[in-house]
Every structure is written in C-alpha cells, then in structure tokens.
Amino acid sequence: MEWLVPVIVIVVILLIIGIYLWATYNSLVTLGVRVDEAWSDITVQLKRRADLIPNLIETVKGYAAHEKGVFESVTKARAETLSAQGPAEASVAENHMQAALKSIFAVAEAYPQLQASQNFLGLQSELVDTEDKIQAARRFYNGGVRELNTKIKVFPNNIFAKGLGFTERDFFEVADLAAVAEPPRVQF
Question: What is the mean pLDDT of residues 41-61?
Fold first, then answer.
C-alpha cells in the first residue's frame, strides 16, 4: 500500500501535464488558423484592388493616353501584388502599388473632365473602400500574429512549441510606412 501514494501522485502530475499540453496545443492550433484566415482576408482584398486597377487604367487612358509610363508602372505593380507570396513579398508589392496609384491619381488631377466622369468617381470610391478594407485586414492579421507569436514565446510553451511544429509568423510590415499610412489621395 505504501507504493500506491507515490504512483497516484505521479499519475496526477502526468495528468496535469497532459491536460496542459493538450490545452496549449489546441490554443496554438486555433491561433494558427486565425492567422491563416486573416492572411486569406488580406489576399482577398489585394485581389479585389488588383481587379479594380484595369478598369481604372482604362478609364484614365481614355483621357490621358499619352501617359504610357504611368500605366505600365501600375500594371507592373498589380502583377507584383498578385504574385506576392507571404507577408514580406506583399509588403514590397504594397509599397510599389501605393506609388503607382499615387502616380495615376496625379495624372487624373490634370484632367478636369476625367474628374467629373461618373465611372472614374465610382472606381475611386471603390478603391478607397478597398484600401480601408486592406488596412483593417492587415491590422487583424498582425493582431493574430502577435497573439500566436506571444503564445509561442512565453514560458513554458517555448520549451515544446517549436518541437510540435509551431513557428513564429511574420508581421505584415511595410518598409515605407508613410507610403501606406493612408489610402491614395483621390480628392479633386
């Protein structure tokens, strides 16, 4: 009977450790799925913006056909955005897209008749809405990454999290924060 007490203590300790590992593993999986979902939201909004760009270019081309360099840079930035894999590439593509959009709106400012076009104004409105959604999705993604990375780094999770296949995720950071601090200026 003397051996029963230490066995019960060991079983209880192992049970507590097992429950802790189970709960922590499940919470890490949940956070990982949340981050994946948030990244998916970002890619959906980036795709939506990329789909608006050809319409915007065609509308502006009708008024400023001689601005070929601007249209090429926007098209190139659009392709770069669509092919970006992961937050790091998306950040670089985001910088290029912001610069390209600023240049196309700078061209548009020179054409008063374009500024009055209902088609152009509708595209502007949709683009501003999409830019706002991209910012919101980026904040949601970075919040999820923060939670996941914190959970992975805290003790005692840091002891076994990497062994279970959980790694820290990259934040969606933009190198030139001033370029994306607000949507492209589209007021005329």
Answer: 83
Q: Would residue 185 count as lying in a domain?
A: no
Q: How far apart are CA 173 and CA 179, in angstroms?
A: 12
Give 81-85's long-range contacts (Cβ < 8 A, gap of 24+): 81/46, 81/49, 81/50, 82/46, 82/47, 82/50, 84/46
Q: Say whether pLDDT at 186 is over 50.
A: no
Give Cα separations from 136 to 94, 155, 172 (angstroms).
Answer: 15, 31, 12
Closest to 52 (Cα-Cα) out of 131, 151, 146: 131
Whether residue 38 is contained in a domain is answered as yes
Q: Which of 105, 84, 126 is nearest to 188 (CA)?
A: 105
187 domain-assigned: no
Residue at 81 is within a domain:
yes
**DSSP letter, residue 154:** S
Separation of alpha carbons 127 and 182, rounded Å = 12
**Any idea what the Cα angle at residue 140 is, between residues 138 and 144, rounded to 5°?**
115
- With beta carbons less than 8 A apart as the criterion, state whether 122 and 100 touch: no
Q: What is the CATH number of the domain that holds 47?
A: 1.20.1440.20
Range of the domain at 137: 4-180
Query: pLDDT per residue over 121-132, tens digit each?
Result: 787 888 888 888
Residue bearing the bigger pLDDT, 182 or 145: 145
